[in-house]
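User: Structure please.
Assistant: Input sequence and predicted structure:
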Amino acid sequence: MKLFFKGVKAASKAFISSEGTGFTSKGYKVTCTCCGGDRFKSRSAQLNTQEMTLMGLDWLNASATALVCERCGKIEWFADKPTPEE
């Protein structure tokens, strides 16, 4: 059991310290509007609406991509998924 928790701890450390990447959106390089940083971690987010929630249809709502700036933590939102730079 001790070995299991040691593995979970190592995996979470690796995830947290993983380096972000640069992105482009529709041909433009994505930069942070707050600090000018160009390294981000990507997250997917569902855009819930009150009406769909009341009807129990949250799964039909659109989703967006959120890029979290590595330098300052500001979140930049995109309707179309940005492309990671190579």
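The longest helix spans residues 2-16.
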